[in-house]
Design a protein that fits this description.
The structure is a single chain. The protein contains 14 helices and 20 strands. By secondary structure, the protein is α/β, with parallel strands linked by helices. The protein has three domains: 85 residues, Alpha-Beta Plaits (2-Layer Sandwich); 81 residues, conserved putative lor/sdh protein from methanococcus maripaludis s2 fold; 238 residues, Rossmann fold, CATH 3.40.50. Strands 17-14-13-18-19-20 form a six-stranded parallel sheet, sandwiched between helices. Strands 1, 2, 3, 4 and 5 form a five-stranded antiparallel sheet that branches. A five-stranded mixed sheet has the order 9-10-8-7-12, with no helix packed on it. It is elongated.
Length: 415
């Protein structure tokens, strides 16, 4: 709690931050937040690590002229890892209704977070931004919970006492994801970027973690289907998130060799080609689904074919503008979110390509330690991801096909 020591001092709270707070610019960010919000500070103690692997530590006295302003400052610096020096257990309140948090609930970030229960710090599981924290005192456990899943009586963390956040650090800066402070550019060297992304995918695969791909229909329109199929066959794509459009046009190509009615061989519109996507959906609906179409031999190629053949789990999330949709499309958005949350367990790397809404939706679910590569011809897609808090994203502003061709070639060279 803030306290009023003297009239001159106003309201005071001591906080500490530790880790790679110098080279990650965490310390200057904290000090800037204090001043920006109208407070002042005194650095009471600072210890700077001598080697690159050493952590640093700072103890800071934060001052404000009233309690509300001090609480505002403490809220602002909390997400940078500044925790009050006075140790207290976290506070919880029982949810008074289904589907809503209690007032003053703590809103989570995608950074690793711990809560203090009975004097012990424990990790919050299922880390995700824009959630609350549900505490099970009997099991001494805590996890992130979305608003819609709150049930009457759930113990939800309120306030910031007994909470500490571990923001992203860039101590090693040994690869692209740790070095690039500005992730969005159309002028960064693409060859270097592709090599780093390929290396990250290989490290993820070798570590036994999953690679998630979030794909839009431009993958098909640009002639990139075979590149994605090679990633699946090579074990570099383990989970797929997409929408009705990606699957529909992929199946349209397999059945009619067109995408949106355009011949993928000649690049020209086919006669009655504008009907092909609808006929593809109808074919699959009449058969009873994508898996049954593969099993019956009606679907013999493409991304969805390879997913079925290699047992790659996929989630097709619906949209208000969907034609059909295909039988596998999940049209309930809350159910789609629930399944996506289940499917990201074990994901160590995410490749997002040519889909703004699905990319942002997935970015909202991923913890900050899952590295993300977002490839899009539109730089606004990556900008929106980072603005939403997915700061672990490296953006590549380019067309899908040349990037995927180079990525597949790089991965094949590393075999």
């Amino acid at each position: 709690m803030a306290h009023n020591a003297t009239g001159k001092q106003g309201f005071v709270e001591e906080v500490e931050i530790q880790g790679h707070i110098i080279d990650s610019l965490i310390l200057p960010k904290v000090l800037d937040e204090i001043l920006t919000h109208g407070g002042s500070y005194v650095i009471k103690d600072i210890r700077i690590g001598q080697r690159q692997t050493d952590a640093s530590h700072a103890r800071i006295e934060v001052r404000a002229d009233n309690g509300d302003k001090l609480r505002e400052i403490l809220d602002a610096i909390h997400d940078h890892g500044a925790a009050p020096l006075a140790l207290r257990d976290c506070q919880t309140v029982a949810a008074d209704m289904d589907g809503a948090f209690p007032e003053q609930f703590y809103s989570t970030t995608n950074y690793r977070t711990q809560v203090r229960l009975s004097g012990e710090w424990i990790d919050v599981e299922d880390q995700e931004m824009d959630c609350g924290i549900l505490v099970d005192t009997e099991e001494s456990a805590a996890r992130c919970v979305p608003m819609t899943e709150v049930r009457l009586g759930d113990r939800i963390v309120v306030g910031r006492d007994g909470l500490r956040v571990f923001p992203a650090e860039t101590a090693a800066r040994s690869n692209l994801f740790e070095f690039m402070a500005s992730p969005v550019s159309s002028e960064k060297p693409k060859g270097v970027t592709v090599r780093e992304i390929a290396a990250a995918m290989k490290r993820t695969k070798d570590a036994g973690e999953k690679i998630l791909a979030v794909l839009g229909p431009a993958i098909v329109h640009t002639g990139s289907v075979e590149h994605i199929c090679k990633l699946i066959r090579g074990g570099y794509l383990n989970v797929l998130f997409a929408g009705n459009a990606l699957a529909t046009h992929d199946i349209e190509q397999a059945l009619f060799n067109t995408s949106l009615g355009i011949s993928l061989d000649r690049g020209l519109p086919m006669e009655e080609g504008h009907e092909h996507h609808l006929r593809a959906i109808n074919t699959i609906r009449r058969i009873g689904g994508i898996r049954r179409a593969v099993e019956r031999g009606s679907l013999k190629s493409g991304i969805m074919y390879e997913c079925i053949r290699h047992e790659i789990p996929f989630l097709l999330a619906g949209s208000i503008r969907d034609d059909g949709p295909l039988p596998e499309v999940v049209t309930d958005v809350l159910e789609a979110q629930r399944r996506m949350r289940e499917m990201i367990h074990g994901v160590g790397f995410c490749l997002m390509m040519a889909t703004m809404l699905h990319s942002i939706a997935t970015g909202n679910l991923l913890p900050a330690w899952v590295k993300v590569a977002c490839v899009d011809i539109n730089p606004a897609t990556v900008t929106k991801l980072t603005d939403r808090g997915s700061i672990q994203t490296v953006g590549v502003v380019t067309d899908a096909e040349p990037f995927l061709r180079a990525l597949v070639a790089e991965l094949e060279r590393e075999k």
